[in-house]
Amino acid sequence: MPDLSYPHYQLQADGPNETGFRLTVVIQDGVGGPLPGMTSQGVLEALKQRLAESGDGVTVRLTKHDVTATDL
Asked: Which domain holds residue 51?
């Protein structure tokens, strides 16, 4: 996989019998900003909720990967 920009997110939904999805998501706001009334976190939370509601025994994890710099 090519290098991803930061921040990026990994959303993993696991179900019974080793079924599931692993999504890697990069969200970039448009030039004028995000869609009205929406945020990157809100989009991810809605997707997480939809996956969690898809069936019995489904667990969903959302991980944010980011880089921070510290002055020394």
From this structure: 8-25+40-59
